[in-house]
């Protein structure tokens, strides 16, 4: 069985993330979407909330599971006996950052962990969780960025009541 991990903050999950998840799920027998518990960042949603949201957003994908992790990705991947990490790329700036991470992870893993890059579909190339949060903080329309139930939860976090 060929398995992969798609790690990220997913705060919140966007249509861009879901595009990568669907496409990676079609390549691998099993895809684990792994929500990073990053102690450095102050997320909008807790790790538990993000896991719950992702489970709901991917419930139609039988070969996708969602869980959280903390610590080094290489250690997490080794504990799962997974040798492939999936990462999405929107722009050249993403590539520079992701390439460095991929090379570092490969070195730290003793050449056991590879990274597969999927370019984001053009319709989602502009999307980032940060921009979704900024737009929502001003009660702007995020309906083109996230699924309706995610939009509702984001607006609630900012104290906005909106109909989708």
Automatic annotation (TrEMBL):
GO cellular component: cytoplasm
Job description of the protein: Reversibly transfers an adenylyl group from ATP to 4'-phosphopantetheine, yielding dephospho-CoA (dPCoA) and pyrophosphate.
Reaction(s) catalysed (UniProt annotation): (R)-4'-phosphopantetheine + ATP + H(+) = 3'-dephospho-CoA + diphosphate
GO biological process: coenzyme A biosynthetic process
Compartments reported by the entry: Cytoplasm
Pfam families, per database record: CTP_transf_like
Primary gene name: coaD
InterPro entries on file: Cyt_trans-like (IPR004821), PPAT (IPR001980), Rossmann-like_a/b/a_fold (IPR014729)
Subunit structure: Homohexamer.
Name used for this protein in its record: Phosphopantetheine adenylyltransferase
Cytidyltransferase-like domain boundaries: 5-134
Cofactor: Mg(2+)
Family: Belongs to the bacterial CoaD family.
Residues engaged in binding ATP: 9-10, 17, 88-90, 98, 124-130
UniProt-listed Enzyme Commission number(s): 2.7.7.3
Pathway the protein takes part in: Cofactor biosynthesis; coenzyme A biosynthesis; CoA from (R)-pantothenate: step 4/5
Keyword set, alphabetical order: ATP-binding, Coenzyme A biosynthesis, Cytoplasm, Magnesium, Nucleotide-binding, Nucleotidyltransferase, Transferase
Chain positions of site Transition state stabilizer: 17
NCBIfam families (UniProt xref): coaD_prev_kdtB (TIGR01510), cyt_tran_rel (TIGR00125)
Signal sequence region: none
Chain sites annotated for binding substrate: 9, 41, 73, 87
Any one GO molecular-function label of the UniProt entry: pantetheine-phosphate adenylyltransferase activity
